[in-house]
Amino acid sequence: MHPGGASVFFDEEIPGQDVTEAFYALHRHEVLQRPQYQRLQIGTIKDEESVIFGRVNVPTLQKRFQKAVREFVDEHIYPDAQAREDDGKRPSLDLVDKMTALNLHAMRMGPGKHLKGRILMNGIVTPEEFDYFHELIITQEIGRIGARGYGDGLNSGSIIGLPPVLNFARPELRKRVADEVLSGKKFISLAISEAFAGSDVRGLKTTATKTPDERFWIINGTKKWITNGVFSDYFTVGCKTEDGLTVILVERGEGVETKPIKTSYSPTAGTAYITFENVKVPVENTLGPEGGGIFVILSNFNHERWVMCCSSARSQRVIIEECLKWTNQRKAFGKPLNSQAVIRSKLAAMIARAESVQSWLENLTYQMNNMSYKEQAQKLAGPLGLLKMYSTRCAQDTARDAVQIFGGRGITKSGMGRFIEHNYRTVTFDSLLGGAEDVLGDLGVRQAISKMPKNARL
Ligand SMILES: Cc1cc2nc3c(=O)[nH]c(=O)nc-3n(C[C@H](O)[C@H](O)[C@H](O)COP(=O)(O)OP(=O)(O)OC[C@H]3O[C@@H](n4cnc5c(N)ncnc54)[C@H](O)[C@@H]3O)c2cc1C
Predict the structure, then answer these.
(1) How confident is the model at residue 321 (pLDDT cuts 50, 70, 90)?
(2) How far apart are CA 140 and CA 134, in angstroms?
(3) Cβ of 432 below 6 Å from ligand 1
(4) pLDDT(384) > 70
(5) Do the bridges between strand 188-191 and strand 234-241 make them parallel or antiparallel, or are there none, so unpaired?
(6) Which atom of ligand 1 approaches the CA of 156 most closely?
(7) Is the terminal CB of the chain with fewer CB neighbours within 10 Å at N or C?
(8) Best mutation site among 194, 298, 432, 440 for ligand 1 pocket (most ligand atoms within 8 Å of CB)
């Protein structure tokens, strides 16, 4: 029986006729792809193939890479994302293993020594060829799934929690933890924010004090909103120490407790509240210099913010694609929505915003490819802060416009507007996580001012 009731079959414009238009006025194409309707497909159109639109002048290697990543995302990540968004469970470990086989976890950390000797995406790209544009492709292809909470659930904790280990840990610790995390056997989170300190990182209160023999840290305190924290095995923790802030790698064990926090997106992200009670950690787990944690934390933010810009830019494109299709198929007052100038004007603004974000992003990506990690930390914190602020503001404007364009469906969790509703509900995550919008804009301007000649005058 038709889920919308039997009356549809008695409508004089439906039975025995070409119902393409009537069908698409009320359904998403994916309805036809459900297993129970596969029997209705009587053939395929000869020579039809899917085409990837988007960046122009993309090198052939990147195109091949993008095609392979897209196929993987469509076949494996998309279905898991939709299922986990519904049941709220963590991303499937089976999928994590499939990603390990292609070295996707390692590639999501960006280019670097951790890729050495690995076969990437079945050998499409070598570790030496792999650059930030390849990583951008991975993040943006995953961004197409339209499942914001799941996007964070799928090892986002590692993307922000592992780099301090890769960049600042002692060799033995780095090797052990990197091997475990990049093979998908263990999970790691970045634990900086607290109820007391979010934007104001220097205000954090978790303490680490040394034992009298100076061989261990004793950590006490709490952390809030830690992505993947519910299921992570390791935590990269910002602590207050005698001479400033110090970042320490903590393994789940005695004295570490994690509890889920309910947020507006799905629990599949594993967002946690963490308590550390007299947790004993070897001093060898210190990441970077004692008292020099602020540099470790701030330099780590750059990659995190750039990744968030990649996914924010791609999500905006997803929403525009949805709107372009919808306004083409939805008819009101006897004509398609896209025949209304007001609607086209909204689309124009959306497209202009998304394209400007993507272009700026690619500009900064190019610069990252030509700078060392340290140079990026020194020169790009401001520009990346400004880009993230701009991107997340654009995303919010686009989310609001999209809801208007979709009407009631834009605020309905299932059916044709479900991605629009999801995006509208979760778009502000990008404007808060990894640094709040206003704070990042301010950072960009302050960095620009600090680079001005001191005696600059009109
Ligand atoms: C779902 C989720 C996941 C997260 N994951 C992690 C994680 O994995 N690891 C982690 O360490 N943290 C994580 N966070 C924390 C996140 O980074 C912080 O929420 C964020 O940095 C903002 O801090 P806050 O919420 O304490 O806001 P506050 O710092 O209290 O700021 C509140 C508001 O005031 C504004 N504001 C503050 N200072 C200024 C200023 N100087 N100028 C202008 N405006 C200002 C901000 O823009 C913000 O809108 C997560 C948060 C959420 C909600």
Answers:
(1) very high
(2) 10
(3) yes
(4) yes
(5) parallel
(6) 8
(7) C
(8) 432
